[in-house]
């Protein structure tokens, strides 16, 4: 029986990916492995080990690799893979707290890493297990493939192409997790860092009925770019969603509000300008359905605890519940606020970003 055109397309893509992988491996052997082997003979063991580690990091697309998370104390880590494309299946890790079972289902947070990270490094940066164990949440960490993006970025800037495919793959994983684990399917939220933040908001706008709330930490405003050049401008705060994109999103929402939104951003972020957070908030305001009860602005609050970085909190409420919250962290660069020390894209001096997020998600019913 002849294969469908779709099957032929995936076959062609996978063959091309295999050829490219072989070509890359030959280039690595010629330009990296062989010279490195000679260097090992010439140099001291310590220096050679450092070069090897740096090369491994470059090839993996992970800036500061971490050991796979282990189950310590209550709760357990699981890992697996899902999907078949584009080009490669994706891996995931999942933390399930003790006490979650078929009769006592837990809320779930989908946590999307940024560029230069994988699930192990992101779990370490965010302290996902410790925070989720304390809060009683399931945490699902999907992992971007280096074949889909060499820097392991989620392709948020291709909303009509690969980005849409990835959003569908992520949604399929969320649905699978809800079917196979003790997850309260109506209490699923998604949060991401940088490219993961932009993809988290993309998911919320594509599948608004499936998420109780969404959040972006240091992410670009979604639907602001359709290629890498435009993405760079958007990250600098020089692009935003145009009128056609807003109109298409409004049609997709079909008269419903987008999910409640949390935005965390440092005002010293030189990679993704903080104006992306205000632009994302403005997009959510534009997407409010006609005739809906207007959101109420709450006076801004400035909060500082101990020696941690100060934050300015801006809230808009729907009735008595928070609906949109923007948290601007003073002096924070392009890094996870309150993250573990010794990792890239992590700032231990900030307030704990994951705890801030879970408080908001709980307040909105996530």
From TrEMBL:
It comes from Cupriavidus oxalaticus. InterPro entries: AB_hydrolase_fold, Esterase_phb, Plant_Biomass_Hydrol_Est. Keywords: Hydrolase, Signal. One of its GO terms (molecular function) is hydrolase activity. GO terms for cellular component: extracellular region. Coiled coil: none annotated. This is Esterase. The lineage of its organism: Bacteria, Pseudomonadati, Pseudomonadota, Betaproteobacteria, Burkholderiales. Residues 61-82 are annotated as: Disordered. The keyword Hydrolase applies. NCBIfam families: esterase_phb. Gene3D superfamilies: alpha/beta hydrolase (3.40.50.1820).
């Amino acid at each position: 029986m002849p294969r469908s055109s779709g099957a032929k397309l995936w076959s062609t893509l996978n063959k091309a990916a295999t050829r490219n992988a072989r070509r890359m491996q030959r280039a690595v052997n010629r330009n990296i492995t062989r010279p490195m082997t000679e260097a090992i003979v010439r140099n001291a063991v310590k220096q050679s080990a450092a070069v090897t580690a740096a090369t491994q990091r470059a090839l993996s697309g992970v800036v500061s690799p971490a050991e796979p998370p282990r189950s310590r104390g209550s709760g357990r880590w699981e890992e697996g893979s899902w999907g078949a494309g584009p080009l490669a299946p994706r891996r995931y890790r999942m933390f399930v707290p003790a006490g979650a079972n078929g009769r006592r289902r837990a809320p779930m947070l989908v946590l999307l890493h940024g560029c230069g990270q994988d699930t192990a490094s992101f779990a370490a940066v965010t302290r996902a297990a410790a925070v989720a164990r304390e809060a009683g949440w399931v945490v699902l960490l999907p992992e971007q493939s280096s074949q889909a993006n060499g820097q392991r970025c989620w392709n948020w800037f291709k909303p009509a192409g690969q980005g849409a495919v990835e959003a569908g793959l992520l949604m399929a994983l969320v649905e699978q997790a809800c079917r196979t684990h003790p997850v309260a399917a109506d209490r699923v939220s998604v949060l991401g860092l940088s490219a993961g933040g932009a993809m988290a908001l993309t998911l919320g706008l594509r599948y608004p009925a499936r998420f109780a709330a969404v959040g972006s930490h240091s992410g670009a405003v979604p639907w602001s770019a359709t290629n890498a050049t435009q993405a760079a401008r958007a990250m600098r705060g020089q692009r935003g969603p145009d009128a056609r994109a807003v109109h298409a999103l409004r049609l997709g929402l079909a008269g419903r509000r987008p999910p409640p939104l949390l935005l965390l951003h440092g005002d010293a972020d030189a990679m993704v300008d903080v104006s992306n957070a205000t632009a994302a908030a403005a997009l959510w305001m534009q997407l409010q359905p006609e005739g809906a009860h207007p959101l109420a602005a709450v006076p801004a609050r400035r909060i500082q605890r101990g020696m941690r970085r100060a934050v300015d909190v801006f809230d808009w409420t729907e009735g008595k519940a928070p609906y949109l919250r923007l948290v601007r962290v003073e002096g924070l660069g392009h890094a996870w606020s309150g993250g573990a020390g010794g990792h890239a894209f992590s700032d231990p001096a900030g307030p704990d970003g994951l705890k801030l997020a879970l408080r908001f998600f709980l307040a909105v019913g996530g």
